[in-house]
Amino acid sequence: MSEIIKPAHINIMWRMHQPPFKDPGSGTYALPFTRLHALKDYGPMLRYVEKFPNMKATFNFTPALLLQIEDYSKGTSEIAQRISLKKVEDLTADEKRFILASFLPATLRRVIEETPRYKELRELRETEAAALTGQEVPKRYTAQDYLDLQVWFNLAMFPPITIEEDKEIKALYEKGKNFSEGDKALIFKKQKEYISQIIPKLKDLAARQQIELTTTPFYHPMLPLLFDASAAQMGMPWLNLSRGLYNYPEDAKAQVDMAIEYHKRTFGTLPAGMWPAEGSYSEQVIPIIRGAGIQWIASGQTNLANSLHLMDGRSKDAKLSPQELYYPWLIGQDKNGLRVVFRDHGLSNKIGDEYRSWKAEDAVNNLFGDIYGIRNSFLNIKDERPPLINIILDGENWQEFYPRNAFDFLSQLYERLGQDPQVIPTTVSAYLGKYDHAPSNILTKQWAGSWAGGTFDTWIGAKRANIAWTFLAKARGTIKLYQGSSCHETPEWKERIAEALNHLYIAEASDWYWWYGEKHHSEDDAKYDFLFRRHINYAYSALGLKAPPEMTWPIREHIPPDETKSPDYLSRHAPKKGIAPKRKRRPNKEIEVPYLIKKLGILEMEGPRFESFLVELFRKLGYRAERVMHDDIGADLILRKDGKKIAVQAKRYKKPVGMDAVRAVIGALKPLECQEAIVITTAKFTYRAKNLARDNGVELWDGERLAKEISRTY
């Protein structure tokens, strides 16, 4: 009897996401990428599926992205959009510089190369930029050149599928140059129309069961790092983290719960599946995800290999068997537990990278050859279930490297998937509903990692990323103090705390740390940094506080050029002070500290030991004293005496202490509900620190005063 060939089931999952680009101060979108990708990719990717009724796919739109799409559907403000709409004769020199810098982006590189007029404008750009600085150049942009560049930047966002379907857009492409203000107005009218179709189209295709809609924690944070940042050490054992650097399980839960609620409100149903941001999960976050009603998640195959290494000791590099990679897994022994499917890196990466230089037909044939090979590997496997092959990749970046924005490749792929009886397009929920009654693959141990190599090294460990995490931790700790204060239970304070938390949740998004890492850079790094710090600052502002001064500087300026890589940076909990931009400071010289401080070995004490020493000292002086166990909140000790509560900042220094220590303890008064403040040092204070302390009623204990108080109890 011949073997029955099980058809291969293919789940193609497109992940769509953009970080929140809206500036919370101005309410204006600082970058145009949500609009650009909505027109170039998000809407078209849905229309490709719609064109082929037998095609099925999974779509993952993050809530943070959908919120932005809603904004654009209603009409919103965006810097590039505003400058595009402005008449050329009204453009300022700065706005012209912005156009030259921003309207020929790498994202549209292929369109620029394939469009003679757009390419011509790029070639003239350098001479025009020089002319704007006052240099003599042989040829400059004319008013028509600026108008054509305004038009092409926005027209190029429409991909081939839109050009073929929309006669007015096609006519503008064919016109090519000498555009009018009326042409420009038509483009923006069309843009709003197409963006407004995205969410209704998602609903329609889901109702027809052509697509499955999944979700992601609301602002796309790395759940394991929110729950406990030490999860990173599983794949990065060299990373030196202080315990509790970031340890907010409640934030992980909030990001999941907000996503579920938004999905239900927007689509009228609860999502069955979830793509945890960057495919990241850990043992600790599984109960949060399953507790929210999620039935399955997806991740990368490296996480599977590493989890099996934990379970049975096999090499992490051991090849996964077909049954391991192409059958879903159950996490834990509960048959109703969370399922997880794993991305086939090889097939996914072929689409994301390798096929870009191939002819569409050859690429599709090669992909199907690999799929047939996987299907044939199940011929001798005694299991009635067919293989589930998971091809998972972003739905917005790889297409721009293909001819015609991958129009030909996707059209041929979807057409063939809908016709081949041995390769069946499906969704994870459809597969699980039919074949997963008795799962055979059970994961009893979970590796903490992302789809990208099974680690978190893209998001934590690099110098800039580490500083960003310390900023986040400091801000979150401040909000935590307000959350736990009985003085802040009024409706007004609850609203302010909720506002601060929302800014903080946005700052938890993985995107910021991606760009702060060493692997990824772009011409917009400074804007990402600005938006991240903007939300941190607004979190403080919502509570009526000023953010610490170091958070007002670009993060790159916190890193001296000669500083070596420091994997223990996070263990120090705070960025280096005093490295303000464009500002030189005289180095503070070490000073002679009092003899008694030397004799007692205080300068050699570690920070916690010094704080404990001070606690004992103050108790002997008649105070009730305790350490503040949350780092970087601006105070190290809390004293109580005669009905007063006093915040104490302690500095075990050999050099003069500056204004930052005084500012920090002043900032701690309100959240700690203290009435007075003291700053203690083993050295001296700068002149400015003394003035600031005097103006704000802060008591200063220098080394001599400290030695005097010690001698009273010694």
Give a structural overview:
- The protein is an alpha/beta fold and 714 residues long.
- The chain has 4 domains: 161 residues, no CATH class; 228 residues, 7-stranded beta/alpha barrel, CATH 3.20.110; 110 residues; 119 residues, Trna Endonuclease, Chain: A, domain 1 (3-Layer(aba) Sandwich), CATH 3.40.1350.10.
- The chain has 29 helices and 15 strands.
- The strands form 3 sheets. Strands 1, 2, 3, 8 and 9 form a 5-stranded parallel sheet that branches.
- Helix 14 links the parallel strand 4 and strand 5.
- About 4% of the residues have low confidence.
Offer a quick outline of the entry.
The protein is of the alpha/beta class. Helix 2 packs across helix 10 (181-196) and helix 21 (463-483) packs parallel to helix 24 (525-542).
Task: Enter the CATH topology name of the largest domain.
Answer: 7-stranded beta/alpha barrel
Q: What's the total number of strands? A: 15
The proportion of residues forming helix, as a percent range, comes to 40-55%
Q: Specify the biggest β-sheet.
A: 5 strands, parallel
Please give the structural blueprint.
Elements: E1 8-16, H1 33-51, E2 57-61, H2 63-74, H3 79-85, H4 93-102, H5 109-114, H6 116-132, H7 143-155, H8 160-165, H9 167-175, H10 181-196, H11 198-207, E3 211-214, H12 223-227, H13 249-267, E4 273-274, H14 286-291, E5 296-300, H15 301-312, H16 322-326, E6 329-331, E7 339-343, H17 345-352, H18 360-376, E8 388-394, H19 407-417, E9 423-425, H20 428-435, E10 442-443, H21 463-483, H22 491-507, H23 510-516, H24 525-542, H25 595-599, H26 607-620, E11 624-627, E12 637-641, E13 644-651, H27 659-672, E14 676-681, H28 687-696, E15 698-701, H29 703-713
Parallel strand pairs: 1-2, 1-8, 1-9, 2-3, 4-5, 5-7, 6-10, 13-14, 14-15
Antiparallel strand pairs: 6-7, 11-12, 12-13
Helix pairs in contact: 1-11, 2-10, 4-6, 7-10, 18-19, 21-22, 21-23, 21-24, 22-24, 27-28
